[in-house]
Write a structure and sequence with these properties.
19% strand; elongated; 7-stranded mixed beta barrel; VSR_TRX; 4-stranded mixed beta sheet; 630 residues; alpha+beta
């Protein structure tokens, strides 16, 4: 029975992958996050879980939840709505983590079905005793591509022994509370993040190529901001394989490899008879590596993002423009030195190593805490492989988690990175629904419960159960959380606008000042109008006192006096005021008169004395009579 050319391409691709695993003395590292059981006490502790390579892990943050093990559809391969099962958490309850068993369908399908039923996260229980593996998305076809790209919740694979403990506790009616923690999934040693993207220029590999191209376009702006600001150091990488020496002269190796079988890539369409060949992809990958090297030498490494994005748009395989001529046009438009790029690429037909591609093959081997790069595309942040959907917000969150706390750049604090945990039950934080004020704040590290500052007024409290406005101006915000009421056109408030921030019932009321202030009946409690002639009438927040006959009520003395006595008293008061005024005016006039009289007498005496004797202040008068008789 014959084998089709397409099947031969697939077999050859599989041989490449087998060759990679057998020839590289590296290892595949499963990226893990921490899963901490809070209750019940008998299984309390921290366990490892393997991060799923789809969905959106909350890098830098954590997610609490309650574990549910469904009674039906325990492998999650069918739609939960068919059995009327819902995992959506009720108001005030913690998010739901659905535990499903491994087997019978793709990991991603299990997570998709649970997400549609309202799950906040999915834990997949392994069905064999083995080391944890990475749950990867399947090679997407028409049916699976749609749900894979729409998975937004995190997922993790847990060991069989641990899963059995969870199942036993749930079956016994225990409330199993757990916390998925990604805060240490990415190292964050300092104020700069180093990250790599293992990619390919191939744009005909289906869903994953489409996802990769969309990610590069969407992430370009953020990547360039981070790079220009010196916050990150980015390096692109490209996976290549080599052809075994015994097959270097075969048609397959010649069409898929350059440099005599040293550097190869799979056929883009997985069909040797049509379209582009694997060696075309290798050459363009090499060109993109050299674009980065040349741009980096000019201190503008971010130009790589421009080239790759423009090449995808201007030179797609579908339009038969995936070639050197189109690439040269992109290079020219970006002002790059094409001669330096050609020199960097070398001769793809030479029977010798290419330094650039040889370096890439060596870099594929895992070093330190980073395992081998075997999944394409792969993002590596601070030498730790990223797991999850390759999407702008999710990746940026992972990169931002790599900064030492308090050193994150402004782009990490944008609305794009909000986790939206506050949308679900207000994140378990304090909330004043009447004023639409909440202590819940979404950040890329997860939600935090912190009492807010609103219109310059600081709220104080634990952020979870209480937040109270404090300081001046607090009464403008929902009356400072204090009691207030309006009746008959009069408004009373228990809010006191001072630094203490206490609620105190106003005069005429009694109560706690927060929930209630009751009107005091001064008449009934005999706090006013106690004179014998007084009659008392209680009003809301106050009272009225009146006197019988022509008597007038004096509130300060709580007594009644006759109107005539009050008039006489007022008249005598006016008389005394006039007399006192006249007395003060006379005294003032006397003092003025005495001062002026004394000044006049002093001036007269000085004039008389000046006629008989010279004063010290006068010049001596010359004696002309004596001069004539001399």
């Amino acid at each position: 029975m014959g084998v089709s050319k397409t099947s031969k391409a697939t077999i050859f691709l599989g041989f490449f992958c087998l060759n990679l695993f057998q020839s590289v003395l590296g290892r595949f590292v499963v990226e893990k996050n921490s899963l901490r059981v809070v209750s019940p006490d008998d299984i309390k502790g921290t366990y490892d879980s393997a991060i799923g390579n789809f969905g959106i892990p909350q890098y830098g943050g954590s997610l609490p939840g309650t574990v549910v093990y469904p009674r039906e559809n325990r492998k999650g391969c069918r739609n939960f709505d068919d059995s009327g099962t819902s995992f959506k958490s009720k108001s005030g309850a913690m998010p739901t983590f659905v535990l499903v068993d491994r087997g019978d369908c793709f990991f991603a399908l299990k997570v998709w079905n649970a997400q549609n039923a309202g799950a906040a996260a999915v834990l997949v229980a392994d069905n064999v005793d083995e080391r944890l593996i990475t749950m990867d998305s399947p090679e997407a076809d028409g049916s699976s591509a749609k749900y894979i790209e729409n998975i937004t919740i995190p997922s993790a694979l847990i060991e069989k022994s641990f899963a059995e403990k969870l199942k036993k506790a749930v079956s016994a009616g225990e409330m199993v509370n757990v916390n998925l923690d990604w805060r240490e999934a990415v190292p964050h040693p300092d104020d700069r993040v180093e990250y790599e993207l293992w990619t390919s220029s191939n744009d005909e590999c289906g869903f994953k190529c489409d996802m990769l191209m969309k990610y590069v376009k969407d992430f370009k702006g953020a990547a360039q901001i981070l790079e220009k600001g010196g916050y990150t150091q980015f390096t692109p990488h490209y996976i290549t394989w080599y052809c075994p020496r015994a097959f270097t002269v075969s048609k397959q190796c010649k069409s898929q490899c350059i440099n005599h079988g040293r550097y190869c890539a799979p056929d883009p369409e997985q069909d040797f008879s049509t379209g582009y060949e694997g060696k075309d992809v290798v050459v363009e990958n090499l060109r993109q590596l050299c674009v980065f090297k040349v741009a980096n030498e000019t201190k503008k490494p971010w130009v790589w993002w421009d080239y790759v994005t423009d090449f995808q748009i201007r030179c797609p395989m579908k339009e038969k423009k995936y070639n050197k001529e189109c690439a040269d046009g992109v290079i020219k438009s970006l002002g790059l030195d094409s001669r330096k790029i050609e020199k960097c690429m070398g001769d793809p037909n030479a029977d010798e190593d290419n330094p650039v591609l040889k370096e890439e093959q060596d870099a594929q081997v895992g070093k330190g805490t980073r395992g081998d790069v075997t999944i394409l595309p792969t993002l590596v942040v601070n030498n730790r492989q990223y797991r999850g959907k390759l999407e702008k917000g999710a990746v940026l969150k992972a990169i931002c988690a790599g900064f030492e706390e308090t050193t994150e750049p402004a782009v990490c604090l944008s609305d794009d990175l909000e986790t939206n945990e506050c949308l679900d039950n207000n994140g378990g934080c304090w909330q004043d629904k009447a004023s639409n004020i909440t202590a819940c704040k979404d950040t890329f590290r997860g939600r935090v419960c912190e009492c807010p500052v609103v219109d310059g007024v600081q709220f104080k409290g634990d952020g979870y159960s209480t937040c109270t406005a404090s300081g001046r101006g607090r009464c403008k915000l929902n009356n400072g959380g204090c009691w207030h009421d309006t009746q008959d056109g009069h408004t009373y408030s228990a809010c006191v606008d001072n630094e203490e921030g206490k609620c105190s019932c106003p005069p005429g009321f009694k109560g706690d000042g927060v929930k209630s202030c009751e009107d005091i009946d001064e008449c009934k409690e005999k706090k006013a109008c106690q004179c014998s002639e007084c009659s008392c009438k209680n009003t809301w927040g106050s009272f009225e006192c009146s006197c019988s006959g022509d008597l007038l009520y004096i509130r300060d003395h709580d007594t009644c006096i006759s109107k005539r006595a009050r008039e006489v008293k007022s008249a005598w008061a006016a008389v005394w005021a006039i007399l006192i005024g006249l007395g003060m005016a006379g005294g003032g006039a006397y003092l003025v008169y005495k001062y002026r009289l004394r000044s006049y007498m002093d001036s007269e005496i000085r004039a008389i004395m000046a006629q008989y004797m010279p004063l010290d202040s006068q010049n001596e008068v010359p004696n002309h009579v004596n001069e004539e008789h001399a």
